[in-house]
Design goal:
heterodimer, A: mainly alpha, two-stranded antiparallel ribbon, B: 499 residues, 2 strands, globular
Chain lengths: 174, 499
């Protein structure tokens, strides 16, 4: 959620530290609120023989909320609040997203076709797109890595890995 | 002398050809993990943990702990050669190590780093040999209130000693606790914080968090820099090694001090990273050449490296004798012990003599094996770094995904890993500390159980935590740690008003 790209005009050269601080603190605040809500459902009082199930989560949530409010307070009222520092420059963010988005697609790929097949595609794509390697080199290396992990996990150590909703390896009997 | 006998018995357990082979494999894998950006000791071991399930526990822990030694050694290599700390605890090594490498003294710097690491680890192992059974005997007196007090001290020491803004330390730690609370409540059996999402019932495994926060988070961070490795060739031969060794004895005082700082920080779970920084800072203040630190002083490598290794090794002492990990990596090893059916804690020393002493003996051997390997293989590891990031990065992400999946055989965990990765990236950039988060996630349930068990014993009376000298003094120490930063500030304020 911190990597939300603000559309429109680029005024600064990136997301400011201030914006990122606020985003993370608000995220924590919401999380704290959720935890608190469920703790109240579970019971958060101190009964005869000690705390109920929700007792600790409740106060953990209180601490999360208080400390995130503290962070927010420092952002708005603390020293150096006027200083404009850049959390991440747009160029850097582009690079980060160029890893993150394919990684998310990769995880989705795992869900569909399993770790081995998705890995080949992911490594090959990454090498071609960011490394400017030739397709052949990239695919060969991707297959090599996948085969190596396959040998290690499925054959050597007998640890089956996820093969996806549409298991393409089923044609080989796995 | 009981310990010496037990230790020799341990050597007989550890010194089989199979175990020696595992040691070598472990150290090599560990150095590899330490060198690669994005793979750390904790998540490296987490990823490789499932591979050891089929081995006997003693062999498995020997291999895993050797991976750990290897990672400790490996972290220094990238710090010195490329100014990229492969591990958080080797950040302080870059301060003087990289300038030395730039002056063409890379071989010297690496030898200094490796030798210091070895000395620090060795000091800590000797301490473990003679202190662990004592701590274990002492720990048999531990009931739920005492355990809670130790957890309390751990958490407090993190709040007190962290460099990060206090609000952020608390927020990170509490987030860890909240994540730990997800799932079935062990005391009442109620489902907590799952919001009707039944896949969350097993809770968040800390391994997923570690792989995401450290592994994926680190890759995202490195990506930001565009990561252009500037490979510097490191020539290391026997002549340089021996010449450096001749110079090292004059730093004996720094070395000893760093060993003590490291051991202390390892046992009280400060961990290797704060130990290395603290040791560097102290050395800078105490050394006659203090002003020249940062320009390539060997002493500036000796201090952090010795302390980091002493702490990394000493962290295993509370793990074995109390069942409390002194570092994230020790926490992962602890998870391993539980999976192999071994309950860490005082009884381990009584019931599993072979295992415990085999492990301690392997620490001696593993460190010697490690030193030899790193001294001979530096050029090889430097070559790995010349592999472009566009190949290394996707391979690391694939490995992380495999690691995350194998923990619970759950697809959902891979998604969580990615989420934790984004969180790790943002948290690191905003200096929310990750270590307290992981520690709270690992220890949260146990701390809560200990607290609630104490409450059941005392029928809801919190004074049980001050009911005897032992628990009272640990709690007191914890409270002291908690207010320590305030005391420091108060002192400074008084001094200012006096002046």
């Amino acid at each position: 959620m911190e990597d939300k790209q603000v559309s429109g005009e680029v005024v600064s050269s990136g997301i400011s530290v201030r914006a990122a601080e606020i985003a993370v603190a608000v995220f924590l605040l919401i999380l704290g609120g959720l935890v608190m809500y469920d703790s109240v459902r579970l019971g958060f009082r101190w009964v005869g023989d000690g705390p109920e199930a929700g007792y600790f989560p409740f106060y953990i949530a209180v601490f999360i909320c208080v400390s995130s409010l503290g962070v927010l307070g420092q952002v708005f009222f603390g020293k150096g609040r006027g200083v404009h520092k850049v959390f991440v420059e747009w160029e850097q963010l582009k690079l980060v997203l160029s890893v993150l988005i394919p990684a998310a697609v990769f995880v989705f790929g795992i869900q569909m076709v399993g770790i081995y097949v998705a890995s080949v595609a992911y490594i090959a794509f990454f090498m071609v797109w960011l490394g400017k390697y030739t397709w052949i080199k990239s695919v060969v290396l991707g297959i090599a890595v996948s085969v190596a992990t396959f040998m290690m996990f499925e054959i050597w150590f007998k640890v089956p890995l996820f093969k996806g909703a549409f298991n393409p390896l089923s044609i080989f009997g796995y | 002398m009981e310990e010496i006998n037990a230790l020799f018995h341990g050597f007989s357990v550890a010194l089989t050809p199979f175990n020696l082979m595992l040691m070598v494999i472990g150290v090599v894998l560990g150095v590899l993990i330490g060198v690669l950006p994005g793979l750390g000791g904790a998540n490296g071991i987490a990823i490789l943990l499932p591979l050891t399930f089929t081995m006997p526990p003693t062999s498995a822990v020997i291999m895993l702990s050797c991976i750990y030694w290897g990672a400790l050694f490996g972290g220094a290599i990238t710090s010195i050669l490329f100014n990229i700390p492969g591990e958080p605890w080797s950040v302080a090594t870059t301060f003087d190590g990289y300038p030395m490498a730039q002056q063409g003294k890379a071989g010297e710097a690496l030898t200094t780093a490796f030798t210091s690491s070895f000395i620090g680890a060795f000091f800590a192992v000797v301490m473990i040999t003679f202190l662990a059974p004592l701590v274990a005997k002492f720990a048999l007196k531990f009931g739920p209130p005492e355990f809670f007090s130790v957890f309390f001290l751990t958490f407090c020491s993190f709040i007190g000693m962290g460099k990060e803004p206090p609000f952020k330390i608390v927020a990170a730690m509490m987030l860890g606790f909240a994540l730990a609370a997800v799932g079935i409540d062990t005391v009442t059996g109620q489902l907590r914080l799952i919001f009707g999402w039944h896949e969350l019932m097993r809770g968040f495994d800390f391994l997923i968090a570690v792989i995401g926060l450290f592994g994926i988070g680190e890759i995202l961070l490195s990506m930001e820099e565009g990561l252009s490795f500037q490979g510097r060739t490191a020539k290391i031969n026997m002549r340089i090694v021996i010449e450096t060794w001749k110079k090292l004895p004059k730093y004996w005082l720094t070395s000893l001090r760093s060993c003590i700082i490291g051991c202390w920080m390892g046992i009280t779970p400060g961990g290797a990273t704060p130990a290395s920084f603290m040791s560097y800072g102290v050395a800078k203040r105490m050394s006659p050449d203090g002003a020249k630190f940062g320009t390539g002083m060997p002493e500036g490598i000796v201090a952090p490296e010795t302390a980091a290794h002493a702490a990394g090794t000493a962290a295993l002492l509370p793990m074995l004798s109390l069942g409390i990990p002194g570092s994230p990596t020790a926490a992962v090893l602890l998870g391993g012990l539980l999976i192999w059916g071994l309950q860490p804690g005082p009884l381990l020393f009584v019931e599993q003599k072979d295992f415990v002493w085999g492990l301690i003996a392997s620490m001696y051997l593993g460190n010697i094996v490690g030193l030899i390997i790193v001294l001979t293989c530096v050029p090889l590891f430097a070559a790995i770094l010349r592999i472009p990031f566009s190949i290394v990065a996707p391979v690391i992400i694939v490995i992380c995904a495999i690691g995350a999946f194998t923990v619970n055989n759950a697809m959902l965990d891979i998604w969580f890993m990615l989420l934790f990765g984004v969180m790790g990236y943002a948290f690191k950039k905003l200096s929310y500390p990750l270590a307290p988060l992981v520690l709270a996630l690992v220890l949260g349930d146990q701390a809560e159980d200990a607290f609630r068990q104490s409450m059941l014993i005392s029928q809801g009376d919190v004074r049980v935590f001050f009911s005897n000298g032992l628990v009272g003094s640990i709690m007191g120490l914890g409270l002291l740690m908690l207010v320590w930063p305030l005391i420091g500030k108060l002192k400074a304020a008084l001094r200012n008003s006096a002046a």
